[in-house]
Amino acid sequence: MIRTGAQIVWECLAAEGVDVVFGYPGGAILPTYDAMLEYPIRHVLVRHEQGAAHMADGYARASGRVGVAIATSGPGATNLTTGIANAMLDSIPTVFITGQVSSKVLGSDAFQEVDVTGITLPITKHNALVTDVGELARTMAEAFAIARSGRPGPVLVDICKDVQQAKTDFAYPTDLDLPGGEPLPPRRQDVQRALELIAQAERPVILAGQGVLRSGATQALMAFAEKADIPVALTLLGIGGFPASHPLCLGMMGMHGEAYVNSAIQEADLLLAFGMRFDDRVTGRLSTYAPRAKKIHVEIDPSEVGKNVAVDVALVADLKAALEALTPGLRSPLHPAWRQRIGAWKADTQHRDILHQPDNGKLYAAHVIHDLWAATGGDAVIVTDVGQHQMWEAQYYPHEKPRTLITSGGLGTMGFALPAAIGAKFARPEAEVWVVAGDGGFQMTQCELATVRQENLDLNISVVNNGYLGMVRQWQEFFYDKRYAATPMLSPDFVAVAEAYGIEGHRVTTREQVGPTVQLARTSGRAALVEFRVEKEEAVYPMVPSGADLHAMIRRPAADALPEAAADAKVPA
Amino acid sequence: MRHTLVARVRHQPGVLSRVAGLFRRRAFNIDTLTVGGSEAPDMARMTIVVDTLRTPAALVAANLRKLVPVMDVTDVTHLPTVDRDLALIRVRCTPAERTELAGLVDIFRGRVVDVGPESVIVEITGDEEKVSGLVDLLRPRGLLEMVRTGKVAMVRGSVAAAEPLAANG
Description:
The structure holds 2 protein chains of 2 kinds. Chain A is α/β, with parallel strands linked by helices.
């Protein structure tokens, strides 16, 4: 059948089962937007292309499917780049479609021309410039295949305007000739060697990363951990891959992991790294990282093996396939003594936990997150921004199921939460979706409130407002002698902002209001924003300073060291 | 130590910038990189020499394999190979010195390919040590200009580089 290039774009999206795209029109992509009206794919008009990229990203994280964003050439494409880089660092399957100037003027600095494939080369898994309509369908099909295969990632297709207007015979290609493709099963000798190390270990710890979610390996991980009796520590992006309430679950590791989790890693004699990449936020100083531990690395991307940490056994394979190969061969003894030791460390940590300290009448962000967890039954999809609130979320909102925490890990992109939550809501319209953002990051992409309203989304938004760029302020407090350069931040009246966008707004200043206001927002049947005015100079504890030993943590102050722990304060319910 | 990798890549626009960009952003330390044609019209061949003191060859190979236009990568360092480097060297040479210089170059199986009033151009092909040996010898005479291709390599005998290591992922 004869189709224009513009129609082929939509034919390909339909063939891939895409039901929604996030985008913003402009000159060089106009032919494609014109053809859009002939196809039953929903288009969400964003307010800034960065938002479109984060929406595609959030959609992909919440659904497991490929997220798609569209923009025009030049500034449209450059505005996408932060979101593309975010998807790259976190290995999120996404396809970005950009218009480009006509192939006849390519390279002439034409109006709104930039070298988009050049700019995005280091922040895409792959990209392509299409100058021939005969190549368009194959390029689109390859983009989807590459985005979701192996270690997923973003793929960008830059399409010249004349290609969108040209016609050709269209058939969706199914005979793709791509290198790599589906990962090989783990090698038998590697599985044997790993099983030997597991059998010898007395103090093993599993380090579970986002690979658990991407590979669909949550059940396989549970079966492995239970049979081997090995505790599971999670990376930030691994949260949800193992139920927080499980007796073997340790919680988050790394820079803001609880002390007992990092202590367990440092004392371990075997680390089993499952679908994680030993990021610097997880390891601290590499030369002192888990010095007594042998390491088994199960990883789909061979270029991650040995990159940061030397390993004793590497299984380059899909995690689920690897776990299913390993579990039947487990013959290791149980590790009750090791678990008891970790349990003792945990008790000491909990003694210092803010949740277990007397209420002093102040509103702490940790309380907000905890009460949000309680009010939502721990069952909401939480989409965070980046900063202190993100770490408090990871610490105080226990996640039981995969894909219920959506957060920017590798790139640490402020402004991610609101647009990513819009994408997540489109992926899972039946789910209760909550934005958890700080006052700084929220203002970076606050314009997408208009998208929420235009699409009539029932999205819940919490802005944890401490009047500072809190995490930067915390670093200034700890490492820069409390010199608060450029971190105090004046914010607008968030309630009035919400109302200006046609969204109901609430403000909470005391602990008692948290639960009822959350209930009000989540049951309103429409979008709602809640601003929480929290303590201004609270820090996220514990903390491993950047580049320090993982066990050299700045600990949470003990309860009696807190001056505000007044004797007459009442204990929270 | 230096490792030699042979990468076979699709002959398409931008493939060299993908490879070069990878080396730059990963801060890989590369000694030489040569690109040229191969036995197939749609395939180009790269020979990459890596300084493994700073950059593990396996990490370079694993990252190269992630580039979509890269078809396969083989580390031929420990395989028997034919290695060749080609140099064109313009060296100062008076008419009176020509015969002596030609004799010297002949020992290295090089040849004089162009003669000017005060200089000649010498062509030499061989492994990198041999080429460097001649260059060192000519340098005191007045080395006016030089171009070297960098190393290309092919596995000897019936073991072809066409039998790549498993390209996983």
